Amino acid sequence: MPQDGPAAPAQAGPARRRSRAANRRPSGRERHDEKITVYVSAEELMDLEHARLVLRGEHGLAVDRGRIVREAVAVVLADLESRGDASILVRRLRGR
After folding, report:
1. What distance in Å separates the CA atoms of residue 37 and residue 13, rounded to the nearest whole number?
2. Residue closest to 38 by CA, chosen among 4, 66, 71, 67
3. Rounded CA gap, 76 and 81, in Å?
4. CB neighbours of 89 closer than 8 A, spacing ≥ 6?
5. Are 64 and 52 in contact (CB under 8 A)?
6. Which of the residues 14, 19, 49, 86 has an alpha carbon 20 to 30 A from that of 57?
7. φ and ψ at 19, to 5 degrees?
8. Pick from 47, 50, 52, 56: which is nearest to 65 by CA?
9. In whole angstroms, how far apart are CA 88 and each of 26, 33, 41, 78?
């Protein structure tokens, strides 16, 4: 019975490190060595799935939910680093 889970492991071979250059083109799923568990509401999960479908349907980006979450975290953390107290994260956590 098929399950909705991680894809099969990538082809065997030496791991390649990729630069974080702005012009980097994603080549598909990447292996990540660290893991966290995050609990979300049913509504948040549906919003995330909707975003995935919009990215695919309207923008031609076939990405999984994990990729969306990693990109969102990177954006929020960069905003925190550059804007500090005025960052969206600080403002939302303070309820403003």
Report:
1. 29
2. 66
3. 9
4. 76, 77, 79, 80
5. yes
6. 19
7. -75, 160
8. 52
9. 27, 28, 21, 10
Determine the pLDDT at residue 18: 43
Query: What is the separation of C-alpha 43 from the centre of its chain, rounded to a whole number of angstroms?
Result: 18
Token pair for 89: 């994260």
Spatial distance between the Cα atoms of 50 and 41, rounded to a whole number of angstroms:
14
Positive/negative CA dihedral, 68, 78, 28, 31: negative
Q: What is the identity of the amino acid at 68? A: I
What are 55's two structure tokens? 């990215």
Does the model's pTM come out above 0.70?
A: no
- Identify the CA nearest to 71 among candidates 82, 94, 87, 55: 55
Q: Which two tokens stand for residue 69?
A: 């979450």
Reported as a single tens digit per residue, the pLDDT across 14-41 is: 444 444 444 555 456 678 889 999 999 9
Q: What is residue 43's three-state secondary structure?
A: helix
